[in-house]
Automatic annotation (TrEMBL):
Name used for this protein in its record: Thiamine-monophosphate kinase
PurM-like C-terminal domain boundaries: 155-312
CDD domains to which the protein is assigned, alphabetical: ThiL
Gene Ontology terms describing biological process: thiamine biosynthetic process; thiamine diphosphate biosynthetic process
Binding site for Mg(2+) 4: D32, T47, D77
Family in the record: Belongs to the thiamine-monophosphate kinase family.
Top EC class for this record: transferase
GO molecular function: ATP binding; magnesium ion binding; thiamine-phosphate kinase activity
Residues at which Mg(2+) 3 binds: D32, D77, D217
Domain of life: Bacteria
Organism expressing this protein natively: Paramagnetospirillum magnetotacticum MS-1
Length: 338
């Protein structure tokens, strides 16, 4: 990328190849494909998530944070399977008029999180598009053979657990859009920060291998995602709204406007882990939580019932009706249940 408009191969050499330098099998991002030796005793765990400007992030979000969010939403899926992240493959469709400064900042964001998580970019594709910026990442990880966590592992009577806090991302998007008034500027910044830069529970995931029964991450919305876990396990769930962990910022927002509970339950953009474990695991999970400095909160139970049904109980003991439990790209009136 010298002088004027960025050139495809210059861009790959300058922005992406340095992120492959630590892994010889990537062949310097100068060949047709990468080589990964199969590791005896491990399963490779593969996942892919895309992000589209205006759909997953705001077009004027800082480019380094767009890059880091792209990595993090994918690492969240690996963590949900108890896997340790290893490699990334990036497909980037940049609008033709993307500028060099934008690209350099995007590359710097990728580099930062590749370093932070100790992973390598081992390949991808770079194209131009007449449409919005569209980014697709494949993340590859590893887990001990046969031990990876599944959505289908929940057992009747298990406690439902979530990591961290729920609702910050969805409330953060509202804050950015000026739809959250009355909270302090610091709280607003915390929430918008959580929307732009999730914190995937990469250390926690592998530690759940001996503890969790069913597991997934929360991306679309707590209620919809728990419904997926329940359906995969042939069970139903009952959770208590008052037990859902809130950050101080989210709690302050809800205190001013209780209708924001819908964003917490269904807004998505959480990238926290959602898992079930037997009641006896509670003490070990509490120890793990303090060891890792990641909150773990029991919010309810899975039980036999209408497969996939999630019942949310309010502080008054009555059911809170939830029409749509989370984000849907197609179908449904509004795109999430807020
Ligand atoms: N176009 C597709 N081709 C093949 N498999 C797909 C396709 N879209 C989704 N899937 C698969 O469907 C399953 C559910 O995908 P989904 O994207 O809902 O999960 P997720 O990544 O955990 O959620 P989110 O996208 O909200 O982060 C995954 O196994 C995914 O690989
Ligand atoms: C600008 C903007 N508008 C709305 C949202 C909310 N949103 C979009 S997709 C999605 C689920 C995860 O995506 P996927 O299922 O495609 O992986 C959520 C919660 C957002 N993040 N940004
Ligand atoms: Mg997905
Ligand atoms: Mg995902
Ligand atoms: Mg997921």
């Amino acid at each position: 990328m010298t002088g004027g408009a960025p050139d495809e191969f210059g861009l790959i050499a300058e922005l992406f190849a340095p992120l492959a330098a630590g892994f010889p099998g990537a062949l310097g991002l100068a060949d047709d494909a990468a080589f990964i030796a199969a590791e005896p005793g491990f399963d490779t765990v593969a996942t892919m998530d895309s992000m589209v400007a205006g759909v997953h992030f705001l077009p004027d979000d800082p480019p380094d944070l767009i890059a880091r969010k792209l990595i993090r939403v994918n690492l969240s899926d690996l963590a949900a399977k108890g896997a340790e992240p290893r490699f990334l493959m990036l497909s980037a469709a940049f609008p033709r008029d993307v500028g060099q400064d934008w690209l350099r900042a995007f590359g710097a964001g990728l580099a930062e999180d590749v370093r932070t998580f100790g992973i390598h970019l081992i390949g991808g594709d770079t194209v131009s598009t007449p449409g919005p910026l569209t980014l697709t990442l494949t993340a590859l990880g590893r887990v001990k053979a046969g031990r990876g966590l599944k959505r289908s592992g929940a057992k009747a009577g298990d406690t439902v657990w979530v990591s961290g806090s729920i609702g910050d991302g969805a409330l953060g998007l509202k804050a950015i859009r000026g739809l959250l008034t009355g909270i302090s500027a610091a709280y607003g910044e915390f929430l918008s920060g959580r929307y732009r830069l999730p914190h995937p529970r990469v250390s926690l995931g592998p530690r759940l291998l001996d503890l969790a029964h069913g597991a997934m991450d929360v991306s679309d919305g707590l209620v919809q995602d728990l419904g997926h876990l329940c359906r995969a396990s042939g069970l139903a769930a009952r959770i208590e709204a008052a037990r859902i962990p809130l950050s101080p910022a989210a709690a302050a927002a809800l205190e001013l406007d209780q209708s924001l509970l819908a964003s917490v339950l269904t807004g998505g953009d959480d990238y926290e882990l959602l898992f079930t474990a037997s009641a006896e695991a509670a003490e070990t999970l509490a120890d793990l939580s303090s060891q890792l400095g990641v909150a773990l909160t029991g919010i309810g139970r899975v039980e036999p019932g209408d497969t996939g049904k999630v019942t949310v109980i309010g502080a008054d003991g009555r059911e809170i009706p939830v029409v749509q439990g989370g984000w849907r790209h197609f179908g449904g009136g509004s795109q999430s249940g807020e």
